[in-house]
Amino acid sequence: MQNPAVGTAASSTGSRFAELPAGASQGPLRIEYRWVNEAAREAPIAVFLHEGLGSIAMWRDWPQALCERLGMRGLVYSRPGYGLSTPRAHEVKWPVDFMTLQARDVLPALLDALDIDASERRRMWLVGHSDGGSIALLYAARHPDALAGAVAIAPHVFVEDVSVESIAQTKQLYESTDLRGKLGRYHADVDSAFYGWNDIWLNPAFRQWSIVDELASIRQPLLAVQGHDDNYGTMAQIDTIAERVSHAQLAKLDACGHSPHRDAPQALNDAIAAFISPQRS
Question: Residue 25: pLDDT band by 50, 70, 90 thresholds?
Answer without folding.
Answer: low
